[in-house]
Fold this protein.
Amino acid sequence: MDNTQEYTEEISAFMAGLRKRNPHEPEFHQAVEEIVSSLIPYIKDHPKYSAAQILERMTEPDRIVIFRVTWQTDDGQIRANRGWRVQFNNSIGPYKGGLRFHPTVNQSVLKFLGFEQIFKNSLTGLPMGGAKGGSNFNPKGKSDAEVMRFCQSFMTELSRHIGEDTDIPAGDIGVGAREISYMFGQYKRMQNRFVGTITGKGLEFGGSLGRKEATGYGCVYFLDNMLRHHGHDLAGKKVVVSGSGNVAIYAIQKCLALGAQVLTASDSSGYIYDPNGIDYDKLEYLKQLKEVQRGRIHEYAEKYPEARFFEGERPWSVAADIALPCATQNELDVEAARQLVNNGVIAVAEGANMPTTPEAYHLFAENDVLFAPGKAANAGGVAVSGLEQSQNSLRISWSKGEVDSKLQSIMHNIHQQCVEYGSGGAIVDYSKGANIAGFVKVADAMLAYGAV
Ligand code: NDP
């Protein structure tokens, strides 16, 4: 009997209370259950945390700010969206976490993301608390001017709640270089101060070299550490990737650099399978298509006829050694996991946040598939955001090489922490390792503060 089974009743009781206090928030419940399943057994052996009600306190955000965002379309119509900032926990540093603009954004999604961010930020070793925010605004199909008016209106309210020592937002789904620039411009105008209150900025105005690559590269660095720790490496491996956004593109790039062959990419309309692999030239085309032209993934298959487009499907049926889900939450379910396992997958690394459903995760665990959870594997993005903050405060810029070597060492350290707390079975339990390692630092800070 493993630890989790022994504590099933306590986990269920904790989750029943959490569900009651937070009804209609399934994504938040899912994220908390995943984490407390490792933490409750650990806390049993460390009763100082339960005596201080650390888990109950940690699952309650410090505050949630909700606001209306009114903006005008190009033809003069008034639109109103909803904006949020979930400031979850600032025990080890100012709040830090991305902003997501997507029609599926709601309080549950942002609470799950903000909660996970606490652990992820702690794992980086940098002084950053956990937060997340965003809006149900859909930038797709909007003109640049409409996106600008929305971003300015969003920042007009958000600016009251953030600051370089308080809360430092960044990008996420639907919030890339364009949106960050509009929001930073508005913040600077309103405050009449040029400070690093947002990360992911353009290189001309305080951004860090290596930031846009950081999440995807970091994910593959973590994967590389995980494979090597278990006697494998990336060279010659076949990889399936979902997504074609910021994380996916740079994950693909680093896979190529380390000698792997990447067979797929996707967006919300479907996926492309390229049996010859996505090489550097094709990746350059993909970058232009998604980052500049804001095109759709089927255009790849039109440009490269050897590739096929599968409308409305996800790439997990393609046989591969490694899977990198890099699009969105719950995109890899148990049927997909079964296909991957039947096809002999050896490792899964989450570029996205919570892309694997709990049932799929359990199937991987039962089959000894190496599994890197997002809070560890995709922490490279927030880590380099932290480095951007440091450079802003010091008023210096590090070279791309300096940033990349810091990123590599941060991902190596995260891997080591997971090994420290997750060893004991046939393979390292990276989820347990990441959950406990991320927890301890934040929990100890909360204990030190007393009842706050
Ligand atoms: P982008 O907006 O750049 O790209 C998102 C990609 O995922 C697009 O290809 C998009 O397709 C696809 N996608 C989004 N929603 C869905 C959906 N519901 N179903 C299928 N495909 C979907 O976002 P990022 O690459 O920045 O983020 C991807 C994931 O990585 C998210 O989970 C994010 O939270 C996580 N992450 C990002 C970090 C970063 O630094 N950017 C840091 C850490 C984690 P389409 O264009 O059709 O919408």
The chain is about 50% helix and 15% strand.
